From TrEMBL:
Residues 50-173 form the Coenzyme Q-binding protein COQ10 START domain. This is Coenzyme Q-binding protein COQ10 START domain-containing protein. It comes from the Eukaryota. InterPro entries: COQ10_START, ORF3, START-like_dom_sf. It comes from Porphyridium purpureum (Red alga).
Length: 202
């Protein structure tokens, strides 16, 4: 089922907000155009500071297949072996499964990763990585846009649903931050142990 964005629907159902799933069937962009469904791009941002060097943060976040570790609504991400710029994504929540293929259209290490879908769920977005003022941390900004039918756009523009989408993205970044800092600590311990061993051998 090609649903524009699962999390707001799940939230709505949990809190008594009615969503007509029959209107969210698997329509391709061409099919939607033939049926006269008006589509709208909706953009959401989330920002977070990660207390780690920008190069380290970029390298961890650019590992697309690891994303389900910090995005529980993602079931699987598979990078195409023949074309690493392409990846297949599968989202699963409350019995609803959504998949799409995306292409990285701009990757500049350690500054930006930008993508857009090529099939399935219509979306695009980018993640930027900037040095924080303290010189040792990284400011991450995640921007995600979904091309949704007008009736869903009206729903997502409400404070209730819009804030939920933003909180969902921010929660993903916060989980990523925890994982990245844990890996950074392990790496620093490993480097310290190697230095200690090297000094002991001298």
């Amino acid at each position: 089922m090609d649903i524009t964005f699962v999390q707001p629907f799940v939230a709505g159902q949990q809190r008594g907000l009615h969503v007509d799933k029959t209107r969210c069937g698997s329509l391709t962009a061409r099919a939607r155009a033939r049926q006269g469904i008006r589509m709208t791009w909706l953009e959401t941002h989330a920002r977070l500071k990660v207390e780690a060097p920008r190069e380290f943060v970029f390298s961890r976040y650019s590992n697309l297949e690891a994303m389900p570790q910090w995005s529980p609504w993602l079931e699987k991400v598979v990078v195409d072996e023949q074309d690493p710029t392409l990846s297949t994504w599968k989202l699963a929540a409350r019995g609803i499964s959504v998949s799409w293929r995306a292409r990285n259209v701009r990757v500049e290490e350690p500054e930006i990763i930008q993508w857009e879908s090529v099939t399935g769920l219509s979306n695009r977005g980018k993640v930027t990585f900037a040095d924080a003022d303290d010189g040792a941390s990284t400011n991450m900004t995640l921007t995600v846009s979904f091309n949704v039918p007008g009736f869903i756009a009206a729903l997502m523009k409400s404070d209730f649903v819009g804030n939920y989408v933003e909180r969902t993205l921010l929660a993903d970044l916060e989980r990523f931050r925890v994982i990245a800092l844990r890996e950074l600590r392990k790496e620093r311990v490993r480097m310290h142990q190697q230095q200690t061993q090297s000094q002991a051998q001298v």
